[in-house]
Every structure is written in C-alpha cells, then in structure tokens.
Amino acid sequence: MSIDWSYPSPDAISAMHAYSTHDKAKGYPDGTTQAAYDSWTAWANDHSGPKTGASLDGWADSVRAEHPEWVEAREWYSENITGDGWDKLVEDYKNQSSDPDNVTPPGFNDKPDWIDESKNPTNSGFNPNGITTSFTGDSSSTSGTAVNTAALEWFANDFLGAITGEGHMLLQTADLVGQIDPKPGAFARAEVLRQAIVGATAQDGGVKGDTKDMLINMNTSLLAMKEALLKMAKQYRDVEELNGLTSDKLDEYLGDSFQGLNGISGYGTKTVKTDGSA
Fold first, then answer.
1. Quick check: is 220 in a domain?
2. By percentage, how much of the chain surpasses pLDDT 90?
3. CB–CB of 215/170 below 8 Å?
4. Confidence of residue 235 (pLDDT cuts 50, 70, 90)
C-alpha cells in the first residue's frame, strides 16, 4: 500500500511508529506516549460538551498536576503531528526506513572488493582447519560398537578444540563476518538489500548480526560440550562402565550444550523482500 506522507493520516502515523519517536527521545518504554495521548483524548472527550467550549489549554491546566504525562503527550502531538514537526518526522523516518519507496541510499563507491585482501586474504573462500578426519588412537578390545574414553578425549581435544575458542575457526569466522559491509549501489532496492544484510537499526543486526551471534553461541555450546566430554571421560575410565551410561546421566553431563545447540535453530528465520511487499 502506498502511503501519502504529505499529511498525518492514521496510516502514515502508524507506518512510521510516530509515537515511538517521542518515547525514544525521552527514554520511555515503547507505547508510553500513545497510551498517554489516548488517555488524554478519552478524558477530553468525556469532559467536552456544549457548555465547556473548546479550550484544550484550559483542560490541560485542570489535569496537569495529576497526569502531567497526558499533557506532555498532547503537547508533543500538537507540535509534531498536527503542527510544523510533521515534516521533520517524515524526513527522519525516510532517512531510516527500509521501505524501497522512501530509502535514501548512501553514495555509490565503485571499489570492486569490500574485503581488504592485503589484511584478510580469502584466497577464493573458506580454508578449514587441519583436523584429523578419524580417531586413530587407542581402541577397545570389545567386539561390536563400543565407546572408550580415548575416543571421547580425541573428539573433545582434537576436534572440538580445533574449532572452538580464541584463534580458532568459529570465532575467527565470527570476526570476519563482523567486517562485512556491502555497498551494492545507490538505488533504493539495493539499499534495502544492504540493510537486510547488515541491519537497519542498532536493534536489528540483519543477516550479518544473526550469523555472527549464531557462530558465537555455537562456540559457547561446543566449548561446554568439550568440557563435559572431558569430565565424563575422566570419571568413566572403565570401558564397560562408560558403555552402560544411562541417558539421564548423559543428559546431566551434556544437557547445557545440547540446549545451546538446539537454540541455534532460531537463527536465520527472518524474511526480507526488496519489492516493498509485506
């Protein structure tokens, strides 16, 4: 739906979340200004009539002591919605909006590669850590499928230890993701795409923020798994005792890391369209 921003219609006020601009400026919880203005309106309507006249200033004086927030909201509304402040609200909204009809994109720069290869060489893509692909250490003499503490320690130290922690794959990748700053071009739809990647506001990190948070949380969860496996291996040195490990006991060791890994499914669920449709 195309919105006419030339006057404060209900659609325009709602689309830009106009009341929230005052909340943000004052540090109020979101919704405070609208609730106060609605309360003022209800009070004014209840006290209006053929004999009361239309002196809103007089009404303001009669409620100011008990409900100063109502009067503040009403004065803000008069100045910014029905007054001269409307054009400024619209201008600020358009400067921050991801609506393709209203986006003001940054100036175009024709730099072909936005990763500084001299500082962070990528060499055509991701280079994985050198991790042994299979366990070749001490194996148990039992027949069939068995678990031994040496295998647990290999998985914890050689595998998880090679990808978690400072200087290793997950956090290194998170740092590289944090450097992403695409400049696709000086036209509205490209700017919407850029904001989808890097985020439009401090509260919206876009795909970049989502991916970085996912990597950091994965690192935290796998570090917890590593420590749990090492603790479990230390306690269960006897192979048969380890093979008899119950699911409840396993959950006691690994529950926190499992919970953290399950939480990763919440990432990557946001959908962004560049054509302005909902």
1. yes
2. 1
3. yes
4. confident
Q: What pTM was computed for the model?
A: 0.47
Residues 90 and 154 in one domain: no
> To which residue do tokens 């919206």 refer?
204
Distance of CA 79 to the CA centre of its chain: 33
- Is 126 within a domain? no
Are 222 and 180 within 8 A, CB to CB? no
Give domain status of residue 119, yes or no.
Answer: no
84: in domain: yes
What would the 3-class secondary structure string for 163-217 be? Answer: HCCCCCHHHHHHHHHHCCCCCCCCCHHHHHHHHHHHCCECCECHHHHHHHHHHHH
Domain boundary among 62, 96, 130: 96
- 250 contact partners, CB below 8 Å, separation of at least 6: none
Domain that holds residue 16: 10-96
Domain tally, the chain = 2
Cα distance between residue 201 and residue 100, in whole Å: 16
The residue out of 96, 116, 136 marking a domain boundary is: 96
169-183, pLDDT tens digit by residue? 888 888 888 888 877
Site of tokens 């601009």? 21
